[in-house]
Amino acid sequence: MEAAGARNRDARSRAEKSPPERKVYMDYNATTPLEPEVIEAMTEAMREAWGNPSSSYPAGRKAKEIINTARENLAKVIGGQPQDVIFTSGGTESNNLVIQSVVKHFHKVHAANGDTGGHPNPVDGALPHIITCTVEHDSIRLPLEHLREERVAEVTFVPVSKVNGQVEAEDILAAVRPATCLVTIMLANNETGVIMPVPEISRRVRALNQQRVAGGLPGVLVHTDAAQALGKQRVDVRDLGVDFLTIVGHKFYGPRIGALYVRGLGEHTPLYPMLFGGGQERNFRPGTENTPMIAGLGKAAELVAENGEAYEAHMRGVRDYLEERLAAEFGERIHLNSQFPGAERLPNTCNFSIRGPQLQGRAVLAQCRTLLASVGAACHSDLGDRPSPVLLSCGVPVDVARNAIRLSVGRSSTRAEVDLVVQDLKQAVARLEGQA
Amino acid sequence: MAAAGAGRLRRAASAVLLRAPRLPARELSAPARLYHKKVVDHYENPRNVGSLDKTSKNVGTGLVGAPACGDVMKLQIQVDEKGKIVDARFKTFGCGSAIASSSLATEWVKGKTVEEALTIKNTDIAKELCLPPVKLHCSMLAEDAIKAALADYKLKQEPKTGEAEKK
């Protein structure tokens, strides 16, 4: 009897105590874990290739080889040449590097022409002009705003269409002035997943440049921040037609460094360094190379080159299932903020709002017990309850934008995880509304 | 000894079962969930487990899922000259809900034409088995398995691709 009572209590407590809550990460746009092969490449480099890559003895040579191989892998995955790729500390550095380089170039070429042979300089006295759009990442937006404040450059932030969330090539071209020297447009937006029409923009700028250069105007260079796109869809600099492309390792299961692609680096396209030092990266970005990180970045790129299509198909399948389940579960209450008619989007991103006065994105996520996600860019987590400026720019109404949640699935996300997440969201919403 | 043990087990089990009526009220926390009896039935009395000859022109084979995801289903159909599915078999690696979903799928496709079988939806399977929300993906996979088997069969009927070895 005693034993039976004890067993009954055990059974009851087993029934009452819930298992440790399983966490499901769906914030892959914020960052990705490292693939096991990437970690392996990095630790091997740490162990075996710690020599200074500039040294001529074998230990240094080995490190140099690893860096060269990584550069080749990176070039291959974007369809470029290895000599056009330089390693940087990440997307922020690459973006800043491009911006300050074009400004320096403008001053060097056009400000210096003041008194050469009396032939009129059409941009004499003008500040360099840069065109971008209103939904860029902070590492593009803030350097440009800073230059504008310091009166070093002029900037036009072209608004994105409220219909399809994209920036229109037409609007970009309309903003071009004589002193324009750069157009920088992200390839895919981190919050909505919308893909910008970069190939079209490049094509039209190229056509425009033929006339401009003939008239003595600066040619307009095109940059795209491909941070979110690489690893999720095919990225080829030949198809994109860009002069600069930013690569960010920690978005495609690589380490926290990046790279910058420059078309015809040192020959066709100028690049002015931000740092001066020991001559590494052909003086474009000196500093003793971070061999382990570079090894990891190269391996991550190799994996994308080999499996990119499979990754994309898998993520799309899981994301589409997620949207089906969300629609089935919440019906009319759900607004899919990342579905714009006629716009392509990343295969893994789902930005949605559940309508309701108590359902601010952050509040819902705080009530979730399984889901790990964000309401927008990770670097904006200090926005409090203010809705995302990106969503507002895309025409999402304020009360809907306030409730936005961004889910971004990854290579290992499964439909089983989607089921768990949808269930978690349903319960979170019920709790919030039950507390009214 | 065994009888006494069984008695204690039954009492412990009934202690858990007595909890069952209170489950709806406690839905907001995470109570222990029991498999629905329909799922248990398919698990304990599986229908149509096995294989058909995948090289045969009248057999369509669908293989979906991935071991890494924890769910793999193979579903095969045998179709007669009039386009009616006369036999079906399945083999599934996965949880009880996955097994039940694919087992039910084989039951449902039998007797249907290839066109009719295409209309089977994951939501119907889930409803029939009373799958809990966290297992709905299993019914999705079963629908994918049916569609894959039908696609394989159709591919084999095309004149130039007569070869049986398709994925």
UniProtKB/TrEMBL annotation, chain A:
It comes from the Eukaryota. Its EC number is 4.4.1.16. It holds the Pfam family Aminotran_5. GO terms for molecular function: selenocysteine lyase activity; transferase activity. It is found in: Cytoplasm, Cytosol. Residues 1-25 are annotated as: Disordered. The keyword Protein biosynthesis does not apply. This is Selenocysteine lyase. It comes from Bos indicus.
Automatic annotation (TrEMBL), chain B:
SUPFAM superfamilies: SufE/NifU (SSF82649). Residues 35-157 form the NIF system FeS cluster assembly NifU N-terminal domain. The keyword Heme does not apply. GO terms for biological process: [4Fe-4S] cluster assembly; intracellular iron ion homeostasis. GO terms for cellular component: cytoplasm; mitochondrial [2Fe-2S] assembly complex; mitochondrial matrix. The keyword Transit peptide applies. Keywords: Iron, Metal-binding, Transit peptide. One of its GO terms (molecular function) is ferrous iron binding. It comes from the Eukaryota. Belongs to the NifU family. PANTHER family: IRON-SULFUR CLUSTER ASSEMBLY ENZYME NIFU HOMOLOG. Mitochondrial scaffold protein, of the core iron-sulfur cluster (ISC) assembly complex, that provides the structural architecture on which the [2Fe-2S] clusters are assembled. The core iron-sulfur cluster (ISC) assembly complex is involved in the de novo synthesis of a [2Fe-2S] cluster, the first step of the mitochondrial iron-sulfur protein biogenesis. This process is initiated by the cysteine desulfurase complex (NFS1:LYRM4:NDUFAB1) that produces persulfide which is delivered on the scaffold protein ISCU in a FXN-dependent manner. This is Iron-sulfur cluster assembly enzyme ISCU. It comes from Bos taurus. The gene is ISCU.
